[in-house]
Amino acid sequence: MTLYQDLSERLKEHIELGFYKPGDKLPSVRQLSHEHGVSISTVQEAYRQLEQEILVEARPKSGYFVMPKQRVDNLPNVSRPPQRPLEVSQWEEVFNLLMIGDNKKGVQLQHAMPDMTTPTLKPLLKTLADLSKQKPELGLGYGDLRGSEELRTQLCRLGVASGCQLHPDDLVVTSGCQEALSVCLRAVTDPGDIIAIESPSFYGSMQAIKAANLKAMEIPTHADTGISLEALELALDQWPIKAILVTPTCNNPLGYTMSDDKKERLYRLAQSYDIAIIEDDIYGDIAYQFPRPRSIKSFDEDGRVLLCSSFSKTVAPGIRVGWIAPGRYRDKVTHIKYVSSSMCPTLPQLAIAQFIRLGGYDKHIRTMRQRYEKQRDHMLSAIKRYLPSNTRVSFPDGGFILWVELDKDIDSMKLVEQCRKEGVGFAPGPLFSATGKYRHCFRINFSEQGMEQRESAIKILASVLLQFKSLS
Amino acid sequence: MTLYQDLSERLKEHIELGFYKPGDKLPSVRQLSHEHGVSISTVQEAYRQLEQEILVEARPKSGYFVMPKQRVDNLPNVSRPPQRPLEVSQWEEVFNLLMIGDNKKGVQLQHAMPDMTTPTLKPLLKTLADLSKQKPELGLGYGDLRGSEELRTQLCRLGVASGCQLHPDDLVVTSGCQEALSVCLRAVTDPGDIIAIESPSFYGSMQAIKAANLKAMEIPTHADTGISLEALELALDQWPIKAILVTPTCNNPLGYTMSDDKKERLYRLAQSYDIAIIEDDIYGDIAYQFPRPRSIKSFDEDGRVLLCSSFSKTVAPGIRVGWIAPGRYRDKVTHIKYVSSSMCPTLPQLAIAQFIRLGGYDKHIRTMRQRYEKQRDHMLSAIKRYLPSNTRVSFPDGGFILWVELDKDIDSMKLVEQCRKEGVGFAPGPLFSATGKYRHCFRINFSEQGMEQRESAIKILASVLLQFKSLS
């Protein structure tokens, strides 16, 4: 490590440890040169490095300052979806997104894919390889319909962190969270029923609503506090809503985590209208705060909350291990899980169970939590630096996706198309609405490790945006 | 190998090669002793061995005879289900069956599990272990929503054997055949629609009908020729049936294969009523005849046949690799597959693709086909020997399950319960009816390699039946 790298690492550490807070002035070049016994140019090089990483900014004639983390001033506006239940459209757009392989060249930030290059996944991969070699017969037969008991036991252990007291018999393992959500939707509804959802909302759950012959009632949602309980209550008064489907912790795509208090109030509201809550907790374990936030399920007194999750965002989507804590709907959920895809493969379940049991999962999560938080700050800085000043952007409390709101007259479908030609991929806004709203928004993933790549993606986006402006 | 074993092996070979046909008298003990230069007692021991394997029978004062294969005289009667569409019941009974682990002691013949101890699976297991070790990253990311292209290419190759000309783009890979069936049902129907099915029928597809809010119209079905086209046509005239779901090749549970001619007539019938056919071909590749029978899909001119299959019966259910050739319903099928469980894991798909490509699959199938046919004959002989003479039993053309029809007043639910206490498991008849018919029937698996175990299971069944008789 060279002298300047060494210095920039130390400064970075000090910023991360909070010795210098966002907005603080950092020591002058001269001062650092003196303190560390290095040349002026070494210090300058170190600061250039930190600027590059968008951790500090140089203010002319004032020196270097820690980049601000908070961008509360330009969060996306509260959403204003249509005030009635509607059929979900946008499948063709979702399909086009899904069909983009991640092996394409360029910077593909359209899928909510976690960083899977981290060495903290190695113990899991080794277990998978070992099991495959040493106990291949486990990969052949049917396992327990509800999932491997070893895994369900470990899932109960994880549940404690979110405030849940679960028993292995309370759980049903699924083929990822997508199956969990689909199964739960079918378990608590009849065809034609209405489901209340956040707006914007994850396209996978909305398409599941469509496929189950349900209607979606999009509820206004704040980018920092989540679904509007006032608007939800009005909707509950007005329409025969059968269930509420929310992602209250590290929301996809908005990134917020609802407060414990609000989670409990949402639960009480569901209780007073006697309806079910389907809680998508897929990003819950990679909230940046530790211990992780409580789930709505942790307030559940009467089994009306169906918690859905998986290891697709915390570990890797290809593992295809998800689960449901279905509460009072267990029997119906088990039935629909059976018809949906029968038993889940045993080996990945056992490998994950061991990964949790031996502490590998906790270690991995700890690493990813810190990494993603840093990458969020970097991405926010890059957006602030390169995108137009009226750009609004979410401030996620966890996970690795940002929601960006552009000028009203920008069409993100066209923007995506143009950016794709330049090798940059992200997910256009209309996919996150049942009815194709959010045309001027997009979701972008920042899990990719390469800081330069992420920054170059934003630069390309900015230059394409400039072309758009000059055309209009 | 001892002298008597050597002799019995030779005799067995002659029987299998057809030198001696079922019912033929075999050479006398004296004659064989002379021909082979062995003692009388050696020949007697050899014959005892063949009797044990139920290949020959000793008739007092007449000598030894080859056991008959054909039992056409006592096939189960044509079924007579209720003449109207009905909701599917029996979930609790199916659930109880599914919850019986295969790791229980005794002889568990309730699940339609293939023989997974065969060495012909070794190349596949090796590939799986190698991929897991050498390319673990393939197990982490999302693959193609429609399934790995390598696998889809190999599936097209397999399709040729059943008379189908498919293109990789015509296929959607699923998480086993259960997902394939569920997805197809949802793709071709709206809630409340009616589906025509064989009777008896696989409980998994019936439960999928239930979960999709559909009604089942059970059609009378012959144990040797399959669904009655006359009865089906009457039903099509009388009810607004939306699709026909059939397993025309190595039917579960009846074992028959419909003739090519009848398959084509069924297709024409669907064409004239302009409805879809969902064809479950899961056992198709382990038909005993070679080349394997054609599928209904092979007659498809206008894309109305949705072929569903998987490697769960031919290779191993734990692999969870199934597929759909959805014809004109491809877009809807892709949508529902996506919401059902998103992408399928990549590694098992690649391993299976390689298994097919390098010839391992063909070799494996060839072995299993011959093995299962022998085991069928043995099981039929054991049933003939030990169960009451009025027992009716199917004569499967492939696969590894038998359907047994007992005296009308035998309750198979109680019989199963009693046999379970004695360590023998099989599947009671009512699970195979939408409305709990076939109480005096059961399905039994004969894939298990241990001949003695299978025979002991039948003996125990016989002794429990005797107790039942004495009680009534």
TrEMBL record, chains A, B:
The keyword Transcription applies. InterPro entries: Aminotransferase_I/II_large (IPR004839), HTH_trans_reg/aminotransferase (IPR051446), PyrdxlP-dep_Trfase (IPR015424), PyrdxlP-dep_Trfase_major (IPR015421), PyrdxlP-dep_Trfase_small (IPR015422), Tscrpt_reg_HTH_GntR (IPR000524), WH-like_DNA-bd_sf (IPR036388), WH_DNA-bd_sf (IPR036390). Coiled coil: none annotated. GO terms for molecular function: DNA binding; DNA-binding transcription factor activity; pyridoxal phosphate binding; transaminase activity. CDD domains: AAT_like (cd00609), WHTH_GntR (cd07377). Residues 1-69 form the HTH gntR-type domain. The keyword Transmembrane does not apply. Keywords: Aminotransferase, DNA-binding, Pyridoxal phosphate, Transcription, Transcription regulation, Transferase. In the C-terminal section; belongs to the class-I pyridoxal-phosphate-dependent aminotransferase family. This is GntR family transcriptional regulator. The lineage of its organism: Bacteria, Pseudomonadati, Pseudomonadota, Gammaproteobacteria, Oceanospirillales.
